[in-house]
Queue: 4 jobs
Job 1
Amino acid sequence: MVRRREISRASTGRYAGDYFTPPRPRILAHRGFALEVPENTLLAFLKALSAGATHLETDVRASADGVAVLSHDPDLLRLAGRSVRVGDLTMAELRRIDLGHGQTFVSLAEALDAFPEARFNIDIKTAAAEQPAAKAIRDARGTARVLITSFSERRRRRTVSALRGVATSASVSRFVWALIGARLGLAPLVRLALRSIDAVQVPERSGILRVITPRIVRAMHAAGVEVHVWTVNDPSDMVRLLDAGVDGLVTDRCDLARAVAITRS
């Protein structure tokens, strides 16, 4: 079902890239492979690809001078011990910050250029990052190898509108409606909620609510989208989720996910 929908979307000018080309399961390295090195850095991405990741998951914010910069947190406190916001520093200033292991903050453009064959899963964290991220992707001619996501439907939609044919996953609001439809057995509601969407990327649980079950996965597949679950680091959980039909794992341990994938091939 997913493959047929990809072909259909390509023919209509929507999804026409190769983001979903690698065989399943998708192994999405959460901020790279940051077990021993700083997250969202070129070294973390290199280690992730070397460990068998099929995709690089990352986060984009905007620097003070409007450059798309890779950073999950809004400030530097956790990574650099500085109580200053990413958006208050220029890209030049961010590059001068030592994150350890010879790494510093990197722009989206630099990451796309450093790994020209890699597929990136990009979470747009702020409205200010929308256009800089879209420009960096266009300039790198990287639309075919990225997926755009955001918790915010407005941020997701505006970024996608600037990147014709890019892959995208559901925002929170779109997924909630799809989940309601799936739980009620209302396939038309699921399809409507996921129109022009290529994947859902969600946790297995949210509080006491179990988000992912085999039934939910089947409903999402019937609507023509892939299901990626975050953040899965235990091999037994990886096996269980893949047995339930999940297509991809967002993980801090892409090395373990790769080992699991090999045993299933």
Job 2
Amino acid sequence: MKTIRVSVPGRICLFGEHQDYLKLPTITAAINLRVEVSGSPLKERQILLHLPDIHAEEFISLNNGELAYDQERDYFKSVFNVLRREGLELENGLECTVRGDIPINSGTSSSSALNVAWARFLTMAASSPKPEFSDPAFIARMAYLAEVEEFGEPGGMMDHFATAFGGVLHMEFNSEVKLTSLKNRLKDFVLGDSGQAKDTKWILSHVKDNVLEAVKIIQKREPSFNLMSCPPQDVDHYHSFLTEEQKNVLQGALLNREITKKAKSLFMQDRFDHQAFGHLLSEHHEVLDRWLGISTLKINRMLNAALKAGAYGGKINGSGGGGCMFAYAPHNPQKVAKAIEDAGGKAYIIKVDTGIKEEKV
């Protein structure tokens, strides 16, 4: 086996935040901030991981059974375990280095990108590769299982497919994930990291649990109710038997569904309207802030500063409660970046990027 390099992008969720686990559509864009795993064989039956970005190392002893988890979200081991159940075998040990420039724990899918990159690295290192090991959809599913199902987390599959495939994607979530690649006519964005830590697990479960409980309550009275077809204005009909919190997050889910439909139509037009795109981003943010309550005062300040500096629109990115926002700035990204930094954020000028990149050297 030669030295292997795999890199995977982060992502921004353009439309459909908090929708994938409700089986509602989303639109994502991969970005040119990436995580890379590189490595080569070791004779010893072990995996040595160098993690210079966080000044750490991990050591995994390979054996004939499942790897025991030693910490919360023990992703290097969970990816290995999930792939091993699918027939992964390693003839040698591995010495690897993991580096990246995706902001960590800030809503740009650093953990999902890491899991996708690690899954693809291991499948490339397999002693007997299977045909499906090179399929981005397979890699995305394995990364999802390792990150979400293995640890009982509340998230969905959107991030794993967005980072594995790259580009601009419309996703539908039924028994299988249906991907539609949208023509990328997008220009520069400015990503702004607020530096505010966020509790992704709590926020996801808070929003998800309340929406699903609201649906359950309504369906007991109206068995035909479903999230794909209910008009947003009909939420008022359920006031008397939903809590205020349940009503709010349900209203938000339905409004976001409609915004995502508008956005898909925009991408399908012959002439792309950049200003309309920006307005839809800001409309989406208003829903996330007002109805789901996932934005923060600092992120709102950063967004307002970006708009005053000439951005066409923007929104919070990821699960919320902190982390990142982004603004669409096709003509003046440097000015928008400065405005975001003056408002207390760390700014990155970013573009849409491709998915998994791999090589053996």
Job 3
Amino acid sequence: MTGTNLRYHRAAFHHGLLVLCVAVSACREPELPRGQAQAQAGGPVTIAAAWPWESRTTLLYGQGLQMAVDEINAAGGVLERPLAVLREDDHETVDRGRLVAQRLAQNNDVVAVIGHMQSYVSLPAAAIYDLFGIVHVAPTATDPRLTRQGYRRLFRMTFTDRETGAQMADFAATRGSRRVAIYYIRNAYGRSLANAFEERALEHGVEIADRQSYDPNAVAGDRALTDILASWQDLNLSAIFIAGEPREAAAMIRAARERGIDVPVMGGDALGTPDFVSLGGRAVEGTVIATAFHPADERESARRFTAAFRQRYGLLPDASAALAYDAVRLLAHGMSRAESVDPDAVAAALHATTGWSGVTGPVAFTDEGDLVERAIGRVVVRNGELVWLDDGAAGN
């Protein structure tokens, strides 16, 4: 083949390839915006729920979520379409959380995600949801860093660690605590909560007599706890604040009581579980714990939710059930206000939300996606149960 013929055949080949590509592109359906394929087909509005379903069966999160979905669908759905939930288990690990987030991001029917339970899983997942244009409602993640990344479609449904720590310090001061020791888990949650408590306590003139951390991977009976409590016996403490997880906190309080340290104990929201009460037994009686919800809250919305939940499941709802319920209903509210399932339109509607109240309290968001300041609720362990501490702190 001569050079001229070779150039001719190459040109003919490239021209044919170009024609083929144009033809294929013309025949292919253009990719629709997120959620619109189902909308055109009259299918459901799909949201996803990422949560450690298998490992957190004692929490009533799933029941609260499903109850909200069923109520919305019984009332006609969202934009006259049924609401469907795709459940994914993140196993409470960063690696699994990323995989779940990537899978949901690649599913163009998913318009919003409610999740995850842990802040350390929510942080990397949030970056993926933002990149792919998905509305992300974080029901239980409390790390302040989550809403500092500039994500415009991210909304937090609960308090940050800093808000909880500061308001628990306010509570300590009003109860006359003057010398407080802090015991916290050595991770982002524990440090943030402990720092906020200490900073606000000092503003009130409350002295932090000591501050000690613990390794979340330490075995039970760790010698470090024994040494800490031995030193605390001589500090003339008036209270202890714990920013940790239920198992270690319960063990710490039991050991403190055995040493005769009988001062009041306060804790962050992570302790508000049946596990903490059962593990601590009589030793944790009187512990005051921050919470986003309790079924004894006398607000009308909380009473209606509690009655309906109990009728349906034969159980009283916990804070996780209430947060899941509010997250679903808030998303439905945003879609209705936007008259669209387009994530950007829904996010704009949620940012503009005022006067909307869930069972956990009034909901309005800052530009960053945090709740506009709302007073936390508190429970106290009494007779082996978490009892609502009705001191007017729970807001409207």
Job 4
Amino acid sequence: MAKILLVDDAAFMRMRCAKLLTDNGYEVDEASNGQEGVDKYMAIKPDLVLMDITMPIMDGIQAVEEIKKRDPEAKVVMCSALGQQTMVMAAIKAGAKDFIVKPYQPEKILDTVKRFVG
């Protein structure tokens, strides 16, 4: 069973996404900011990270850079609102593999997850 780490400061978004993923057979862990995301990543070594860009303490781009420094093989997919193209490009440069646009479309999340972890 693939393990997925959701990093988003919005509890509602984490809850919706976690339910979708667990209903589809994935194991899900959560973090509410970039720093917590980096710490959780190192502790549980998930198969995939779904990372919000705009968060307190450490944003998603800094978190991707930090995770990739510690584990160059890490698979991170960014989640951003429309209109954050500059941030998305920065995230891809930092090592993110892909991005999903908010508000989440359940099929898009599942397709993206399946592409990276089966």
